[in-house]
Design goal:
The chain has 733 residues and is α+β, with helices and mostly antiparallel strands. The chain is built from 18 helices and 27 strands. A six-stranded mixed sheet has the order 15-16-17-20-18-19, with helices on one face. Strands 3-2-1-4-5 form a five-stranded parallel sheet, with helices on both faces. A hairpin with a 2-residue loop joins strand 10 and strand 11. The protein starts with a strand and ends with a strand.
Length: 733
């Protein structure tokens, strides 16, 4: 796509352009925001303003037009999110973010074919969120290929491509005015030493330093030569003085024509981390295995419409609503019309259980599950368009699947005004809604392909949106991509495994789904892995054991949607290969998934931070402790009027508290032509039979969410019903 580069002059914004080129995008213009005339720098939360005297030289070196605008706004909205959660998505008048909106508006007037915006964000959610907010209002795609990269590895990659940048400002421990004007390569040992000693950011993401790019081989058509500079000290100090370099005179020395055709060999992070490359191989081995016989026929989890009324369950600040459908008389309406009616019905229900406006409660929900009759590309796009009219900034997490005959919604909403008055004060205050809403193309994980956030955190819970196996840099499925990751040398030598990998995209899709889920968990707002250094994990040196238990939280529930029952055993082989702690897990076969994916994964994560039971309401400093969930499983056989009932269950508990999730499987002989009444009766019998189990008894008392997946016709005689029930149990301190 054609794109405009947001230039700060620094190494990050320029190095990102090489990755844009690597991914096939075409640079057509540059844009920048600068202080008013006579000011070298202003106190901006969003923009690098030092070095603006040289931005025009960088545009000249790129040989693209430069569009400039003076910053008139101020950092009025300084929180982690920008804009309102209500529909519309307008910005905040007077905020410096709106200067970017006006700048891009000017760019589009001159280049209406621009589709993307390049931004060099590495770790700053503040910057990324605001750029993405403006891009969304113009339907532009942000290109942020440095996002979440490990800074130590990234800095080395920059030097490997011979990027020539100097320090133009210093403001961090161990840096002084003597470092101004030194090249990045000369400063490399010092930056790594300060990182090891003080935990500073090697790429300057903490404001330790700012840079100015003199040359970026592969995309610059010339090198900037500084002829006269001046050092300015704005804050004296022995530990971390603040000083910057003023560019007084410089020029661009253009390359020879034969040099213009040379492109830097830009290193990109491996698509798969080592542990997920192992997953890919294990799935391929399963595909090759002759002993892996396909299961008996299993159709979609919802094979017919079950006319159940909407269900509502409240527990403290949580409101769970299920079975929301349009009225029967709307059955012949278009899917967008049915979806719109579903949301109106949902808002009516939420209005009965919250004193807040229902639109606000809906917009700040934690998780929505959307069931559509079909998920072909036109239907998915139309449903997204209708869906987006109900949400603004940081929409809820979402899972979207094709199952059943009607549009159906399920919602887990959060109404903080419903919190118990005797909640531990500081724990109650920590229960703010935080989002991870990434809309940029990167190497990290897929940008959202609809109006949803990747994760919504309301301490101690994080709801992760359904992840499918898209290639993050292109948002395409492996089956439709010509760029696939290399295999390890031992696999390259094994023709049988290699043939299985080449013949099916399932191995790579499965590995990507598991990796995307892991990376989203690690980057989620309340993640214990959401640190300063950045990095995806093992893919770029951030950690050898990136998928270790508790890094980012504890998965308490995993739900896998598949479109082909024959994939089940192979996917399970991949899940087993991760060596993750046991988790209540359910696999459901559905009609189709977004983009034609074969697998989608949804998880619920707990931070592990638990309030002690029976807190003293008068104690504002009640103790919060770090806990690890315990996993339980078992089976039980009982006898009902319809015959023998078989149960298998899995549960994850934070004992002695009742913050837990569970999966319950029920098999009962009710025949092919089962009715919803029989199923409900079977579930009631199940509840009676399970009351005696200590691990499951709490779910019968304080369950917030339960999902039922009926599947007629499983078993040798196809004369049973196999039901998977998901219980989510929240304990409100």
């Amino acid at each position: 796509m054609k794109y405009v580069a947001l230039l700060s002059g620094g190494k990050d914004s320029c190095f990102n352009l090489l990755h844009c080129l690597k991914n096939g995008h075409q640079l057509v213009a540059a844009a920048t925001l600068s202080p008013e005339s006579g000011k070298d720098e202003i106190d901006s939360y969003l923009y690098q303003t030092v070095g603006q005297d040289g931005i025009a030289l960088i545009a000249d070196a790129l040989r693209v037009p430069l569009y400039r605008r003076v910053i008139h706004g101020h950092p009025l909205e300084q929180g982690p999110e920008y804009g309102t959660t209500s529909p519309g998505g307008a910005g905040t008048p007077g905020d410096e973010t709106e200067d970017l909106y006006l700048l891009l508006e000017t760019v589009l007037e001159h280049h209406p074919d621009v589709q993307g915006v390049a931004v060099g964000a590495i770790l700053s959610n503040y910057q990324r969120v605001r750029v993405e907010h403006v891009c969304r209002r113009f339907s532009l795609t942000p290109l942020a290929y440095l996002w979440q990269r490990n800074q130590v590895a990234l800095l080395s990659e920059m030097l490997a491509t011979h990027i020539d940048a100097i320090l133009i400002k210093v403001a961090g421990a161990g840096l002084t005015s003597s470092h101004l004007g030194l090249t990045l390569s000369a400063m490399h040992p010092t930056l790594l030493r300060l990182h090891a000693m003080y935990g500073t950011h090697p790429c300057g993401e903490g404001g330790e330093y700012e840079s100015f790019t003199l040359d970026c081989p592969g995309i610059f058509k010339g090198k900037i030569v500084l002829q006269e500079t001046e050092k300015i000290t704005s804050v004296e100090g022995d530990v971390a003085p603040v000083a910057y370099l003023r560019i007084k005179r410089a020029e661009v020395v253009y390359n020879d024509e034969e040099d213009l055709s040379e492109h830097a060999d830009v290193p990109v992070p491996p698509l798969l981390e080592p542990c997920f490359q192992h997953v890919r191989i294990q799935v391929a081995l399963s595909l090759c295995s002759l002993s892996c016989t396909p299961p008996a026929y299993i159709g979609p989890a919802v094979s017919r419409s079950m006319s159940l009324p909407p269900s509502v369950r409240t527990l403290g600040p949580w409101i769970a609503v299920g079975n929301v459908r349009a009225p029967p008389e709307n059955a012949l309406h278009s899917i967008p019309e049915q979806l719109t009616q579903c949301f109106y019905n949902l808002k009516d229900i939420l209005a009965q259980h919250s004193t807040f406006p229902p639109s606000e409660v809906l917009a700040k929900s934690a998780m929505i599950t959307l069931f559509l009759p079909t998920l072909d590309s036109s239907t998915f796009a139309a449903a997204n368009a209708a869906y987006s009219t109900f949400f603004g900034t940081s929409p809820p997490a979402r899972a979207c699947i094709a199952a059943g005959e009607n549009v159906t919604l399920e919602c887990v909403a959060w109404a903080p005004e419903r919190s118990p008055v005797n909640s531990i004060a500081h724990f109650r205050e920590s229960q703010t809604r935080k989002s991870l809403h990434v809309q940029s193309l990167s190497y990290w994980a897929p940008a959202n392909i609809g109006p949803y956030s990747q994760a919504i955190s309301i301490s101690p819970w994080t709801f992760i949106s359904g992840q499918i196996g898209l290639l993050p840099a292109s948002l395409t499925l492996p089956a439709s991509s010509n760029i696939l990751p290399p295999c390890p040398p031992d696999v390259e030598c094994d023709s049988e495994i290699r043939s299985c990998i080449d013949a099916s995209s399932l191995a790579l899709e499965t590995a990507l789904v598991l990796q995307h889920t892991s990376r989203v968990i690690r980057a989620a707002p309340i993640s214990s892995r959401n640190g300063d250094e950045g990095g995806f994990g093992g893919s770029d040196g951030a950690g050898e054991d990136a998928n270790a238990d508790g890094q980012g939280g504890h998965v308490q529930l995993a739900l896998y949607y598949l479109v082909d029952a024959h994939d089940l055993k192979h996917v399970q082989a991949g899940v087993t290969a991760t060596n993750d702690p046991p988790t209540p897990t359910l696999y459901a076969v559905v009609s189709s998934l977004p983009r034609g994916a074969r697998l989608e994964k949804v998880v619920v994560v707990h931070s592990g931070r638990c309030a002690l039971s029976n807190p003293d309401p008068a104690d504002d400093n009640g103790e919060i402790v770090e806990c690890i969930p315990r996993f339980f499983q078992g089976n039980l056989t009982t006898t009902s009027e319809d015959g023998q009932l078989e149960f298998y269950w899995e549960a994850s508990h934070f004992l002695p508290l009742s913050e837990a999730c569970a999966v319950l499987f029920v098999r009962c002989p009710v025949g092919e032509a089962c009715s919803s009444t029989v199923l409900v009766d079977a579930m009631e019998d199940a509840a009676k039979g399970l009351k005696s189990l200590p691990a499951l008894a709490p779910f019968l008392e304080r369950t917030l969410v339960s999902k039922i997946f009926p599947r007629p016709g499983i078993g040798p005689d196809k004369g049973t019903v196999f039901c998977g029930l998901i219980y989510v149990n929240f304990d409100i301190p």
